[in-house]
Amino acid sequence: MNPTSAPSVSDSQRRASTVYARLHAVFGWWSLLAFLTLGIVLEAMHGFKVGWYLDVGNEQRRLMWTLAHTHGTLLSLVNICFAWSVSKLHGWDRRRRTIASRCLLAAGVLMPAGFLLGGVFALNNDPGLGILLVPPGALLFLVAVLLTALAARDLEL
Fold first, then answer.
1. Coil, helix or strand for 78?
2. What distance in Å separates the CA atoms of residue 18 and residue 43, rounded to the nearest whole number?
3. Average pLDDT of 119-127?
4. Other Cβ atoms within 10 Å of 12 Cβ, number
5. Taking a C-beta distance cutoff of 8 angstroms, is the pair 98, 34 a contact?
6. Which residues lie across from 123 on neighbouring strands?
7. C-alpha closest to that of 128 among 41, 46, 68
8. pLDDT above 60 (res 9)
9. Going by C-beta distance under 8 Å and a sequence separation of 6 or more, which residues neighbour residue 69?
10. What's the CA gap between 151 and 157, in Å, rounded?
11. Does 2 score more than 80 pLDDT?
């Protein structure tokens, strides 16, 4: 592509993209560290045969914490990808970009926290009330991905 034919992107659009890129990169890398650490702790509890984690009566806790680790890791990586994407999609509508960003950040907290709390307060093989955070987090994640996919479709990189 010829640089002279590239669409003009204002400095304010570039600055805004940089702010969102930095926010999601920082959130993504730090949360990735946290959820990978959680995974190592879970593996250690498994390796040391910790009863309150491995006993049959604690199956729900083990499942919830595994889901917290998995979803937290996934959402961390998606935030890192979002940081890269937003740095390339300079002409993205400001309002839609803000909504996608906030939804993704909220999903990155709500989904893993819901699974984690669901495991902490698991009772009689049922997850705790924290599990109620998961559906809104999933919906917010869906909105963020949809808005990002639409932006990627509509704008040139």
1. helix
2. 37
3. 89
4. 9
5. no
6. 126
7. 68
8. yes
9. 35, 38, 39, 42, 112
10. 10
11. no
